[in-house]
Structure formats: structure tokens, C-alpha cells
């Protein structure tokens, strides 16, 4: 059993808070755009930061399958129950082949995953993309760990493939968003490469702040399209948008380091970090449900309540061994070091 790393939990807590806020606020707002510049790259980066060399592909595959794919299937099934129940009631009232066909199409979309899923299932693409990113990077690193330059060229080539996919295969929908792995690998690899970095952190903070200021100026005053949405393979301006994502990650890292883990704020974000994967699944169904009530129309209020409800459900799931296995991908109350 590995112990949790407090500051990593705080980092994930900040990350999942940005995910919730990014999905709650108006899609046309600046808050939405700026959060999307870095919030999903952040989770791939953290996962890479936690990567440790794995010698046995099968064992690594099984462990990650239990941790990521079993909860994916469990939440997919759980959230699908209301929809299938409606189809069932319609079929009881008026049996028809067209209804059976519609149900089959919906089922195939759920199996296909990725961009085919929306609303309650909006973030499910991330789980399958992360799983395949981890597996592919593990294989690449085991094979080329002594040839780091060649590994770097492969990752750079994958980034090129991601851009090609974005520009020339714009309307193609790959199963489980497998195509997004091409760009996710760059964030994952950088997270791993910098996990033992001992360079001057303040230099990177200043550089990140400058990049962020320039990006905001370019967005607001020059009208540059810096949108970054990994799910829909909108990667903005090549290299520049990627650099902006890294700047956002760097700034959140320094924010984490500035938050004392013994303070109330640090404890809160650490708890959210522990529940980050559960919140990733739960926040969309909760916030869409809250949206029906006028009292929750305010984005900040709805974000806060969504985080609270998601966290409470996580705590309930964590109390049962069976539910932990099905929905949290874990057999113990404490996650392993590389929980992502």
C-alpha cells in the first residue's frame, strides 16, 4: 500500500474544481474559455507525473483496467438506467420495431463512447483516453527508456498526428476518443519527465505568468482563436495553445505549493482530490439536475453545490467494499500512489 501525497491531492482537487466550474458556466463566457485552455491537459500531466516504470505490461493493464474501466462501465450502466426505463415504458405502451432500433442505436453509441456521449456522459471520453494513454506510454517507455531522444521524437510525432487529425479528419469520430491519445501523450510524457525536475521553480512561474498574460491579451485584443477542447480535438494554434496549456498547469502547480496542506483550504482541496475521479463522473448529472431549479441558476452556487453533492456520494461509495470496486476502482479506502 502506498501513502497518498497530500500536495498531489490538492492539485487534483484544484483540477476537478476547474472541471466542474468549466462545465457549469456559460460556454460563451471567458471563464469557460480560459479554464478549457488547461483543465483537461492538467489531469493527463498529473497522471504522467505519478507514472512509475512498470515492468509487466499485463499486470499494469489489469490494475489500470480495474481502476479506470470497471468504474467506467459501472457509471455508464448506472446513468443509462433512466433512459432505458423510458424506452421500456414506451415499448410496453406501443411495441414497435422502430423503438427497438432506436434502443439499439443508443446502445451502440454508448459502447462506441468518446464524442458519441454527451450530457450526463459528457466527460466519459476522458477515462478511456486516459487509460489508453497510460498503456501506450508505458509500452513506449519500457522500450525506449534508454533512448530518451527517440522517445521524445515519437511523442512529437504523435502531436503532429493530433494536428493532422484535427485539421483533416475533423468530422471523424473514433471509438472512446482514441485519436485524442495522440495529443494526451505529450502532456502525460511531460508530466513524467518533469516529475524529478529540480530547476528553479520561480523561473517557470514567471514564464508561465508571461505566457498567460500574452494569451489573454491575444484573445481579448487581437481576436486570436486560442480555444482548446480535447474532446472535440480543437487544439487551437499549433504549439502556442499547447504552450498556454502548460503555462496553466505550471501556475496551478505553484498555487498548490502555496497552499499549506494544514490550512482549511488545503484540507478541502485535498479531499476533493481524493474524490476527483468520482466527481468527474458525477458532476454532470448533478449539475444538470440542479439546473432545473431557479435557486441554482447562479453558476458559482451551482458549482459549489455540485462539488458538495458529488463528494458526499463519493464518501458513501467509499464505505462499501463492493461499491468501491465497482465505482471507485479500488479495493481499499486509500488509493495507490499513481491513482490516476
TrEMBL record:
It comes from the Bacteria. The chain crosses the membrane at residues 34-51, 72-92, 123-142, 149-168, 174-190, 202-223, 235-256, 263-281, 301-318. The keyword Nucleotide-binding does not apply. Residues 6-313 form the Acyltransferase domain. Keywords: Acyltransferase, Membrane, Transferase, Transmembrane, Transmembrane helix. One of its GO terms (molecular function) is acyltransferase activity, transferring groups other than amino-acyl groups. The keyword Transmembrane applies. Pfam families: Acyl_transf_3. PANTHER family: MEMBRANE-BOUND ACYLTRANSFERASE YKRP-RELATED. This is Acyltransferase family protein. It comes from Oxynema aestuarii AP17.
Amino acid at each position: 500500500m502506498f501513502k497518498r501525497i497530500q500536495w498531489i491531492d490538492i492539485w487534483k482537487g484544484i483540477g476537478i474544481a476547474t472541471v466542474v466550474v468549466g462545465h457549469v458556466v456559460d460556454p460563451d463566457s471567458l471563464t469557460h474559455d480560459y479554464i478549457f485552455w488547461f483543465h483537461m491537459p492538467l489531469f493527463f500531466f498529473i497522471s504522467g507525473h505519478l507514472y512509475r516504470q512498470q515492468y509487466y505490461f499485463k499486470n499494469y493493464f489489469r490494475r489500470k483496467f480495474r481502476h479506470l474501466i470497471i468504474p467506467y462501465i459501472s457509471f455508464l450502466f448506472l446513468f443509462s438506467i433512466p433512459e432505458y426505463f423510458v424506452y421500456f415504458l414506451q415499448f410496453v405502451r406501443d411495441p414497435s420495431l422502430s423503438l427497438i432500433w432506436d434502443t439499439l442505436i443508443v446502445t451502440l453509441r454508448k459502447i462506441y463512447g468518446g464524442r458519441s456521449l454527451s450530457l450526463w456522459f459528457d466527460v466519459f471520453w476522458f477515462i478511456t483516453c486516459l487509460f489508453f494513454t497510460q498503456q501506450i506510454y508505458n509500452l513506449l517507455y519500457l522500450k525506449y527508456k534508454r533512448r530518451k531522444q527517440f522517445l521524445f521524437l515519437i511523442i512529437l510525432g504523435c502531436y503532429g498526428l493530433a494536428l493532422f487529425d484535427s485539421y483533416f479528419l475533423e468530422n471523424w469520430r473514433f471509438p472512446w476518443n482514441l485519436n485524442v491519445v495522440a495529443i494526451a501523450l505529450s502532456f502525460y510524457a511531460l508530466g513524467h519527465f518533469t516529475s524529478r525536475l529540480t530547476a528553479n521553480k520561480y523561473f517557470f512561474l514567471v514564464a508561465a505568468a508571461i505566457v498567460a498574460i500574452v494569451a489573454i491579451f491575444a484573445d481579448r485584443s487581437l481576436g486570436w482563436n486560442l480555444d482548446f477542447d480535447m474532446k472535440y480535438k480543437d487544439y487551437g494554434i499549433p504549439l502556442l495553445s499547447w504552450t498556454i496549456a502548460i503555462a496553466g498547469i505550471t501556475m496551478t502547480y505553484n498555487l498548490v505549493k502555496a497552499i499549506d496542506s494544514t490550512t482549511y483550504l488545503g484540507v478541502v482541496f485535498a479531499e476533493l482530490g481524493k474524490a476527483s475521479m468520482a466527481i468527474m463522473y458525477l458532476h454532470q448529472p448533478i449539475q444538470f439536475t440542479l439546473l432545473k431549479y431557479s435557486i441554482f441558476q447562479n453558476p458559482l452556487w451551482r458549482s459549489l453545490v455540485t462539488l458538495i453533492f458529488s463528494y458526499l456520494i463519493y464518501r458513501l461509495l467509499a464505505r462499501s467494499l463492493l461499491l468501491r470496486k465497482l465505482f471507485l476502482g479500488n479495493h481499499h479506502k486509500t488509493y495507490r500512489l499513481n491513482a490516476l
